[in-house]
Amino acid sequence: MARATEWMALRQGQSLNHRGYEGHLNRRSLDAAFRAHLCLVFIRAEGILKAFRRFLQRTPVYGAYKALGHYPDYWYWILRGRPPRSPHLLKQKVVREYGEKFGLKTLVETGTYYGEMVAAMKDRFDRIYSIECVPGLAERASRKFARDEHIRVVCGDSGVVMPDVLALLTGPALFWLDAGYYGWVGIRSKNNEQRLSAELEMILSHRYPHVILLDDARGLTGRDGIPSVGDVKADVESKFPQRLVGVEFDILRITPRNQQETRLYG
Questions:
Q1: CA-to-CA distance for 230 and 92, rounded, in angstroms?
Q2: In 3D, which of 135, 106, 112, 74 has the Cα closest to residue 215?
Q3: Which residue ranges form the domains of the chain, and what is each CATH number?
Q4: Ordered per-residue pLDDT tens for the chain, 266 residues
């Protein structure tokens, strides 16, 4: 009788354990299903958001929409631990600080896009030249800044129009070069020089000691014909020994080697 009782208790315990194991499996299945559902929701939401952005890009309000997005983008960047890709607000801060640090009154930009940097800097510089190779974007920016007489949007390939812009300068300038604008594909010009290297040399060889900021430095990978940061640094500092090349917050900076003794303006 005692053995029968023990056997029944053992069977009941095994049954309970089996049910618990089944419950655990069910919970895991539900968790997995819930996560999959959330992924689908986010994917669909992202698709809707992309479609909404494409729609806004065809409207006059897209520039304002992007400008408003800079603030949450900045705080999201902070929360993520400041990853390599820098938010636009930080880029604006760097451009503003370098203009003030070196006393520069002129800003030259490649890659106007929707004119976000120009809009942010239009009250900080006496003269702004922005180069955009896409005619539609250049025309849009020209209309946007039509009332700002100190701003000029130049439509064309920067490799072609940069000499014309340099000829307009009457003093040192701050150059804000958009690395994405160069495509990072080792594009070569007719004289067989890489486009980025050719433009850097063009700017640094000019009669005024300009300061250069190059955005998206993480794109300098050193692969597939793309120069690395080390390549650019070695090339610039060997050809222009009075210049110093460094990278911070995904922005490559080319400045006078002796910043304390060199005053670039005034």
A1: 25
A2: 112
A3: 88-256 (3.40.50.150)
A4: 555 555 455 455 555 455 554 555 455 655 565 565 555 555 565 566 556 556 555 555 555 555 655 667 667 667 777 777 778 788 999 999 999 999 999 999 999 988 999 999 999 999 999 999 999 999 999 999 999 999 999 999 888 999 999 999 999 999 999 765 554 444 443 433 467 788 899 999 999 999 999 998 888 877 777 788 898 899 999 999 999 999 998 999 999 987 543 444 33
Token reading at 86? 């820098």
